[in-house]
């Protein structure tokens, strides 16, 4: 089979198409014949060897993570044989290949008629979007600030915030088309975070401050987001698209503000049953058409480097998918 790996850190050109044997699933695993693969922005940072790589230590050569939609071809020992032949979606560690191995515990059955783009957000992207809202303890009628609102996770956060009863959703993005995209997916107000006065624009939109900030940018965006929180406001940090994780002085929290972080891996370890309920809830939203995943581009596996260039350009609206 074909797979994508990189043997040294660098730009998209570091990604190499290789031939490899089809992997054999181990106990508790399944083998999926891939139909579509969702690319993750974090892999562009890991590929460049940026600081975030310290959070996800893996030796070179490295594979790319991704969300795989496809059909179960085989199962490992002690794994339900009835899974063979089923169309599923799964988050995979070695995703960019013709056949991917996945943990059977976190497979998402794909209902009939659900498109691959929407099915592909169910294993990881949509659960993150839902969970960060819950980590922020969003209450009905509250104001939410969503950074990176035109991205793969961000545009789902906007939709889910509305589904969960947010009163006002303020979306930030870096271009007018991205802000229009966020509004098309449910945002009430759009703010360009490249404007130096973006916090003032947010405060104008929400004079009392925002109740929940969901930040996947990190760095200076995270630090300045504290200033727009209302008393008892909550900030949830779950990414570092800026390339810097950022930090918050403890004294900044004395103004009745709180900051928490979120990791899907940690959440599943802490409460697996809740995580499974979330998958079922999100699948139902998708089936009902209440959760829509936008696909910016479909590219062949041989053009995975181009998928990474798109992600790094920050020009994409929604997801970038690769087809084996």
Please characterize this protein's 3D structure.
This is Zinc-binding dehydrogenase. It comes from Streptomyces mooreae. InterPro entries: ADH-like_C, ADH-like_N, ER, GroES-like_sf, NAD(P)-bd_dom_sf, Zn-ADH-like_protein. It holds the Pfam family ADH_N. The chain is an alpha/beta fold and 324 residues long. The chain contains ten helices and 16 strands. The strands form three sheets. Strands 3, 5, 6, 7, 8, 15 and 16 form a seven-stranded mixed sheet that branches. The chain has a six-stranded parallel sheet with strand order 11-10-9-12-13-14, sandwiched between helices. Strands 2-1-4 form a three-stranded antiparallel sheet, with no helix packed on it. It is globular. The model has no long low-confidence stretch (mean pLDDT 94).
Strand content: 25-35%
What string, H for helix and E for strand, traces the elements in order? EEEHEEEEEHHEHEHEHEHEEHHEHE
Q: Which regions contain 5 or more consecutive residues with pLDDT less than 50?
A: none
Number of helices: 10
Number of strands: 16
* Shape type: globular
Can you summarize the main beta sheet? 7 strands, mixed
| pLDDT averaged over residues | 94
Structural class: alpha/beta
Question: How far apart are the first and last residues' alpha carbons, in Å?
Answer: 10 Å
CA radius of gyration? 19 Å
Approximate helicity band: 25-40%
Organism: Streptomyces mooreae
InterPro entries: ADH-like_C, ADH-like_N, ER, GroES-like_sf, NAD(P)-bd_dom_sf, Zn-ADH-like_protein
Domain Enoyl reductase (ER): 10-322
Protein name: Zinc-binding dehydrogenase
């Amino acid at each position: 089979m074909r797979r994508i790996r990189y043997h040294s850190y660098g730009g998209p050109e570091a990604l190499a198409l290789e031939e490899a044997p089809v992997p054999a699933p181990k106990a508790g695993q399944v083998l999926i014949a891939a139909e579509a693969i969702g690319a993750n922005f974090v892999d562009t940072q890991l590929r460049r060897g940026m600081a975030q790589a310290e959070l996800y230590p893996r030796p070179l050569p490295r594979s790319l993570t991704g969300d795989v939609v496809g059909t179960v071809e085989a199962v490992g020992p002690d794994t339900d044989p009835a899974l063979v032949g089923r169309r599923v979606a799964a988050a995979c560690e070695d995703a960019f290949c013709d056949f991917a191995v996945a943990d059977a515990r976190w497979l998402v059955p794909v209902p009939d008629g659900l498109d691959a783009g929407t099915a592909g957000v169910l294993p990881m992207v949509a659960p993150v979007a839902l969970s960060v809202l819950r980590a922020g303890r969003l209450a009905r009628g509250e104001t939410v600030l969503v950074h990176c609102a035109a991205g793969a996770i961000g545009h789902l956060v906007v939709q889910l915030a509305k589904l969960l009863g947010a009163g006002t959703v303020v979306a930030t993005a870096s271009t007018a088309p991205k802000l229009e995209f966020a509004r098309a997916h449910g945002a009430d107000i759009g703010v360009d975070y490249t404007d130096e006065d973006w916090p003032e624009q947010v405060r104008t939109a929400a004079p009392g401050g925002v109740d929940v900030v969901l930040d996947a940018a990190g760095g200076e965006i995270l630090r300045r987001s504290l200033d727009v929180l209302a008393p008892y406001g909550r900030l949830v940090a779950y990414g570092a698209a800026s390339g810097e994780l950022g930090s918050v002085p403890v004294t900044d929290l004395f103004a009745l503000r709180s900051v928490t972080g979120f990791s899907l891996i940690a959440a599943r370890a802490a409460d697996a049953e809740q995580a499974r309920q979330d998958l079922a809830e999100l699948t139902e939203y998708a089936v009902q058409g209440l959760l829509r995943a936008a696909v910016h581009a479909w590219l062949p596996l041989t053009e995975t480097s181009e998928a990474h260039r798109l992600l790094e350009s920050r020009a994409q609206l929604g997801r970038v998918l690769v087809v084996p």
